[in-house]
Design brief:
alpha+beta; five-stranded mixed beta sheet; 5 helices; about 30% helix; elongated
C-alpha cells in the first residue's frame, strides 16, 4: 500500500480499463478485501480440520440409530410387518383381465374373476324373434349358451367376421352367457383403485355395464351389471 500511495495522481491501468488514481485505489482495496475474506472462510481451512468436521457430522447422524440389541430387534420386526402389510394390500387390489376388441380398434376388458373360457364360434345358431343383441346360441357342454353381441350395447358398427372372432364365456352366480368378440389381445394387469370413472357417452346404453377405464383406452366391463340387465332376461341360463 505504501508503494501505491507514493504514486502521482495519474491514470492507472486495470486490465483494458483506464482508471484515475482514486478509482484505481478503491477497486484494488475492494479486490484485496474480497480475496482475503474468501481465503479466510473457504481456502485457509486445513484438510485435517475439514475431515474432522465431516466425520463429526457422520457420527452425529449415526448416533440416532439404536445401539442396543432390543431396540434393533424391535426396529427389524416393524420393518418386516410394514413390508408384509404392503404386499397384502398390493395382492388385494391387483387382478388380471382378458383384453379383447370390438370392431377395429375398440378395446374392452373382462376381469378373470368372471371369465370361464374362450370358444371358437363354430356353429353359432341364430334365434328367431329375439333382440338384435342376441347373436345366437351354441351348444356348450350339453347346454344351450346364449351369445351376446356387445356391439349393440356400445353402438359399434358391425364388421365382417374374421378368423379372430371368438366367444368369451362369462359367469356371475347362476347367470352365464357368451360374448361375441372380434379378437383377443391377451392378458393384462389392473388395479381397481386405478380405474378411471366411466364418462357418459352416446355409445353406451347403460353405464352400469362399465366398471371403469383402464390405461385411458380399455373399457372394463362390469359383468354383474351386464348380466343383471333386465333386457337380458331371455338370455339367462341356469
Amino acid at each position: 500500500m505504501a508503494k501505491r500511495n507514493s504514486q502521482t495522481d495519474v491514470s492507472a491501468s486495470l486490465g483494458e480499463m483506464t482508471l484515475s488514481k482514486p478509482q484505481f485505489d478503491e477497486a484494488l482495496a475492494f479486490a484485496e478485501s474480497g480475496v482475503s475474506t474468501f481465503v479466510a472462510a473457504d481456502i485457509a481451512m486445513p484438510p485435517l480440520h475439514r475431515e474432522s468436521e465431516v466425520s463429526q457430522r457422520v457420527q452425529t447422524a449415526w448416533s440416532l440409530m439404536p445401539t442396543d440389541a432390543l431396540s434393533r430387534k424391535i426396529l427389524q420386526e416393524r420393518a418386516q410387518l410394514l413390508a408384509t402389510v404392503a404386499n397384502e394390500q398390493k395382492h388385494e387390489v391387483s387382478d388380471q383381465f382378458l383384453c379383447f376388441r370390438l370392431g377395429s380398434i375398440e378395446r374392452y376388458g373382462i376381469p378373470y374373476a368372471h371369465l370361464q373360457e374362450l370358444l371358437y364360434v363354430g356353429s353359432l345358431a341364430p334365434v328367431p324373434c329375439t333382440p338384435a343383441f342376441i347373436a345366437g346360441v351354441v351348444n356348450h357342454r350339453g347346454e344351450l349358451l346364449t351369445v351376446l353381441d356387445l356391439k349393440h350395447f356400445f353402438r359399434i358398427a358391425a364388421t365382417p367376421r374374421t378368423g379372430e372372432v371368438r366367444i368369451v364365456v362369462i359367469q356371475h352366480g347362476s347367470m352365464r352367457a357368451g360374448l361375441l368378440v372380434d379378437g383377443v389381445d391377451g392378458n393384462e394387469n389392473f388395479r381397481t383403485a386405478d380405474l378411471a370413472p366411466p364418462l357418459n357417452s352416446e355409445g353406451v346404453f347403460n353405464m352400469e355395464h362399465v366398471l371403469g377405464i383402464h390405461g385411458g383406452n380399455v373399457t372394463m366391463l362390469n359383468v354383474p351389471g351386464l348380466l343383471s340387465d333386465p333386457a337380458l332376461t331371455v338370455g339367462r341360463t341356469a
